[in-house]
Amino acid sequence: MAGGGAAASPGARRTAARSRLRGVFHRHRRAGELSRGPGHGSWGPGGGGAVTITRRLVVAGGAIAAAGACRAQPAESLAEAAARRGVLFGAAVEPQTLDRDPAFAALIRRECAGLTPENHMKWNLLRPAPRRFDFAGADRLVEIAQGQGMAVHGHALVWHEANPDWLARELNPGTAAEILYEHIDAVVGRYAGRVRSWDVVNEAIERNDRRPDGLRRSPWLEALGPDYIPMAFEAAHRADPAARLVLSDYGFEYDDEAWMVEKRGTTLERLAGWRRDGVPIHALGIQGHLLGDRPPAFGEGLRRFLRDVARLGLEIYVTELDVNDQNTQGGVVRRDEVVAEIYDAFLRAVLDEPAVRMVTTWGLSDRYTSKADMFPRRDGAPVRPLPFDRDLAPKLARRAIAQAFGGVR
């Protein structure tokens, strides 16, 4: 959901956010398909639809804290709870944030076994000019992860968004293959043996583009045709044969969304074909951007979809998990209950499938979340989409995630 020296400006992030919001959810709503409620420092120590809430997540024998958080740090980390289930738990982060905020860095070090660069491996930061790469931010994140014995999940080698301006000018059928291969060879080759897995192609399926194969009409497809996807995976595999290679996308999560159900079927068809053709795809990435203003419809349809993915011989990674509480009604305590219950319902459904091997939240603390810019609340209250609050205290969402992994309640 980028890799050079500096992060994108707030204005650029807001512009991208508005575009992304229109492109993901508003497009489906207009189509009538979406029902209510998709320099290195030191590494230091609204109204939405109704949601039915259970009391499972409330601390037994005590009231919920006024701020909706459980202030004491739990004895077992999320990484430890996940590992006992054979799952790698991690979070998406910015390296400069870890360098300038020792308390947040310590929380990441305690809770996570893996890191995903939120922006510093995307084209717009990593490749500012056709013949120039800027690896500073990506190098720093990999350095931090290696220093703490953490895995790195690379994000993302090919995407239709977050691209530098020059790419639109340079990309055409005569140049696209060379640009694609040069980029993947340089990036994956640089981090071979240090990045465990890669989102090789991100958001390749878009049924609203009305192609018979269901593929998105991205700049890469327009330049190279559908073969750009096998080409990207094959190039990544050549550059690092040991890396796990992922096709990642949004819009698989809800059983009661017709377009998501249809997208599941399209994705299975494409994956089955690529597997038959020997394309080195090792996992499907399910982003997991969940909504706090609609019922958590994560049922048998989702479970069946995950079983079908696993039958293709693929692992499954949850790559960008969070809960958008932009339109969730109530005060902090109520909203935190709703968000926690959605995490709980989703992860309990997903983790029923043994092929799920990684869960990554898109951020770890509300102190640093892209939801603040992308989906601000109308009432001006801070958004609370993540397991820890802005003071780095664990929330009910953190308890829900731990319990879904089978951790201490």
UniProtKB/TrEMBL annotation:
Reactions catalysed: Endohydrolysis of (1->4)-beta-D-xylosidic linkages in xylans
Enzyme class: hydrolase
Domain GH10: 72-404
Sequence ranges of Gly residues compositional bias: 38-47
Sorted UniProt keywords: Carbohydrate metabolism, Glycosidase, Hydrolase, Polysaccharide degradation, Signal, Xylan degradation
PROSITE patterns: GH10_1, GH10_2
GO biological process, one term: xylan catabolic process
EC code: 3.2.1.8
Residue span of region Disordered: 1-47
Comp. bias (Basic residues): 15-30
Presence of the UniProt keyword DNA damage in the record: no
SMART domains per the UniProt record, alphabetical: Glyco_10
GO molecular function: endo-1,4-beta-xylanase activity
Pfam families recorded: Glyco_hydro_10 (PF00331)
Signal peptide (from-to): none
Active site per UniProt: 320 (nucleophile)
Family the entry assigns: Belongs to the glycosyl hydrolase 10 (cellulase F) family.
Name of this chain's protein: Beta-xylanase
Organism per entry: Caulobacter mirabilis
